[in-house]
Each structure stands twice: as C-alpha cells, then as structure tokens.
Amino acid sequence: MGFIFSKSMNENMKNQQEFMLMNARLQLERQLMLQNEMRERQMAMQIAWSREFLKYFGTFFGIAAISLTAGAIRQKKPAFFVPIVPLSFIFAYQYDLGYGTFLQRMKGEAEDILETEKNKLQLPKGMITFESLEKARKEQSKFFIDK
C-alpha cells in the first residue's frame, strides 16, 4: 500500500516539476520578447528622431549654404565657404543615420567587438552577485541605523 502511494506521489511531483519548468520557460520567453519589442521601439524612435532632425537641419543647411555662397560671391571672400564644411559633415552624418547604412555598420562593429574584444566588456570588479548586493545592502542599512 505504501509503495503505491509513494509511486503516485513521485509521479505527481515529477509532473509538477515538468509543469513548473515549462511555466518558467514560457515566462522567460515572454520576458525576452517584451525586452526585444521595447528595444525595437526605442530604435524606431531614434531613427524617426534622426529623420525629423534631418528635415530641420537640412533646411537650415540649405539656407546657410545658399546664403554663404551668395555672400562669398558678393563680398569676394572665399572664407564664407568655410562654415559649409563642418555643416556638410553634420548633414551627411544625420542622413546616414536616418536613411543610410549607419545602423547596419554599427551593428556589425558591435558584433565584432562582442566576438573579438570581449575583455573590453568586463565590468569593474566582475559580475554583480547576490552576496555582493546583500553585503552592500547590509552596510547601507547599518549606515541608516547608526544615524
């Protein structure tokens, strides 16, 4: 009688462990999907911001380029062309960020860093552990108790 009861308990416990494992896996998958969705939305906002900024900066750059060119011709001073150079670099950067391949190149560089330069990604004093957090928490609470 005890053997049958024990066998049934073991089977129930095994089923419960499998259910808990499946539930934990499902929860982790949902968290990963949520984090990825949030990352994608943030990236979309960054790209949209760059495109919107490009519209305003492009208008400013166009007006400045025309005005500086007209001033250089009218005043016969080629120094008026000098501000166009840094402004054109900013314009090219914003265009590349909003419509070009900047993000793909950045992603490729990040993947290369992750593969070949992992030592540059190490946290100071290593990974945070439960023990280090507890130690810091206890020290902080002792600080507040002493006051």
From TrEMBL:
<keyword id="KW-1133">Transmembrane helix</keyword>
<dbReference type="InterPro" id="IPR019319">
    <property type="entry name" value="Plg-R(KT)"/>
</dbReference>
<feature type="transmembrane region" description="Helical">
    <location>
        <begin position="53"/>
        <end position="73"/>
    </location>
</feature>
<feature type="transmembrane region" description="Helical">
    <location>
        <begin position="79"/>
        <end position="97"/>
    </location>
</feature>
<protein>
    <submittedName>
        <fullName>Plasminogen receptor (KT)</fullName>
    </submittedName>
</protein>
<keyword id="KW-0812">Transmembrane</keyword>
<dbReference type="Pfam" id="PF10166">
    <property type="entry name" value="DUF2368"/>
</dbReference>
<dbReference type="GO" id="GO:0010756">
    <property type="term" value="P:positive regulation of plasminogen activation"/>
</dbReference>
<dbReference type="GO" id="GO:0005886">
    <property type="term" value="C:plasma membrane"/>
</dbReference>
<keyword id="KW-0472">Membrane</keyword>
<keyword id="KW-0675">Receptor</keyword>
